[in-house]
Specification:
492 residues, 5-stranded parallel sheet, 22 helices, 47% helix
């Protein structure tokens, strides 16, 4: 490929501008790139291309690396265009400017700038930039959104270029391949689910997911408070595993009575009971080859737990009313906001089932454990709704609250601000606290801290142990204590 188009992320204008540029070049590689990443990207591509078009991406990344990359490209005869709706930043040197074939079109947006630069019309796709997208363009709009979602979450760099190709050439949905169709279906179902944040806590969570996901035979147990994204974690494990093209099925164990659980898990044969007019597959059979996520596993009644244990022991079961054994290959992921080990001690959860489920554990962190991510999470929500970021003072107010309902509660507050058109977040948060004052927060329902020092230390050690995914070494390091000391408090 002789041509490369580099455009921005997040705004539909970038994608439409790239589609206009593609109409000019006919063929090109297309990548989304951030201002920070641009100098690195130009340095990495080397002299592979004859022409590079940079659309609306700022030049305020590492200036030394940017000049080094442009100097190398110029030396090898690579033509680099910079098309922008804004002027050069003041910090950009004349030397650097001279290495760019710049086209500036102030205040009319990057799509109009690209259109004028190449003298290419875009009337047929201009409506994609509207807040309310016409129905006939909804699928292609969603495909662009899906491609950005897949890059953010699964580092799929090809999807964005593929979506822009479809825009540029007006490819109807009927001619899309299975890759585009599957990506769009996944986005429409799970696109509202993301693990947002760059704090150490979230980076550790992503690292754990990335290590666990490929080992698709291992069962995973996710524990954490309500609203921390346990189902999202399960979905990411599935999507990053070898099973990603197979079914991902979810089921809430608290949603059905014990006598119906066996039918939901294993299905039934025709005539198995009154109303069973045909054979019906259960969840394990539907999820065969893929992943089954069982949420609220701690709510499963004791008398129903043996039903689940039966299939975990050999991957085989018999449908209700049947005699023939069915064999399945399902990765099981379970989750709860309850203390499962405590339920075992209380005799409310089978110990043998506990050990079957908890092969690998993941802690879903509460929002108060990574408050630094509130800004990114809140701005992500606000950008989608209002196409702008929150003010610094609004973010500061949001960070003063502990969010017992976690990310779910934060999004609820932002939704209320949108509905009420409320910009005073201090007032908004005050009203929210008054409204939820009658609810017991998660932190308040935890074990009360006793007055006696040794007992209080024991509780604190156990909480830190849970925070670090029950890793004794990391717990000891965090507490700045010897492993044997930590072990002593955990065993008491």
């Amino acid at each position: 490929m002789d041509n490369l188009i580099l455009t921005g992320w997040g705004w539909k204008d970038y994608g439409i501008a790239a589609a206009v540029a593609l109409r000019h070049y006919k063929k090109a590689d297309i990548y989304g790139v951030s201002t920070r990443r641009l100098p690195e990207m130009l340095n990495e591509v080397g002299t592979k291309y004859k022409e590079i078009a940079i659309l609306g991406v700022g030049l305020t990344g590492d200036p030394e690396l940017l000049e080094k990359a442009l100097t190398k490209l110029q030396k090898h005869g690579v033509h680099v265009r910079w098309i922008s709706a804004l002027d050069f930043p003041e910090c950009i040197s004349d030397s650097l400017r001279s290495k760019l074939d710049s086209f500036l079109c102030y205040n009319d947006g990057i799509t109009e700038a690209t259109s004028q630069c190449f003298n290419i019309p875009y009337d047929d796709i201009a409506l994609l930039a509207r807040e309310e997208v016409p129905k006939n363009l909804q699928s292609i709009h969603d495909l662009v959104e899906a491609s950005m979602y897949f890059y953010r979450n699964f580092q799929d760099e090809r999807a964005y270029g593929m979506a822009i190709y479809h825009i540029a050439h007006n490819v109807p949905e009927s001619r899309w391949g299975s890759c585009e169709t599957q990506m769009l279906e996944h986005y429409r179902r799970y696109g509202h689910r993301e693990l947002v944040g760059k704090s150490d806590v979230m980076m550790n969570l992503h690292d754990r997911i990335n290590r666990i996901a490929p080992r698709d035979k291992a069962r995973v147990f996710i524990y954490g408070e309500s609203g921390t994204g346990k189902e999202t974690i399960a979905m990411f494990i599935h999507q990053k595993s070898p099973r990603k093209d197979e079914p991902f099925c979810t089921f809430n164990c608290a949603s059905v009575t014990p006598n119906l659980l066996e039918d939901r898990f294993f299905g039934h044969e025709k005539g198995a009971f009154t109303g069973a007019n045909e054979q019906k597959k259960g969840l394990f059979e539907i999820a065969d080859g893929g992943t089954l996520f069982l949420d609220e596993i701690g709510e499963m009644p004791l008398e129903a737990q043996g039903v689940l244990l039966r299939v975990l022991e050999g991957g085989r079961f018999t449908r209700v009313g049947g005699t023939e054994e069915v064999s399945v290959d399902v990765r099981l992921i379970t989750a709860t906001n309850r203390d499962l080990a405590e339920l075992v001690r209380e005799g409310k959860f089978r110990e043998d089932l506990y050990h079957r489920l908890c092969v690998v554990q993941i802690h879903a962190p509460s929002l108060r454990e990574h408050k630094d991510d509130i800004e990114q999470i809140a701005n992500g929500v606000w950008l989608k709704e209002h196409h702008r970021r929150l003010e610094a003072d609004q973010i500061a107010v949001l960070k003063t609250y502990d969010y017992p309902g976690n990310v779910r509660e934060l999004i609820n507050i932002l939704d209320r601000a949108s509905v009420l058109d409320e910009s005073d977040f201090a007032k908004l948060l005050k009203e929210h606290k008054e409204m939820t004052a009658g609810l017991k927060s998660t932190s308040e329902t935890k074990e009360e801290i006793p007055d006696e020092l040794e007992a209080a230390v024991r509780i604190h050690v156990k909480r830190v142990y849970e925070k670090y995914d029950r890793n004794l070494t990391k717990t000891a390091e965090a507490l700045k204590a010897a492993r044997n000391t930590v072990k002593k408090y955990l065993e008491e």
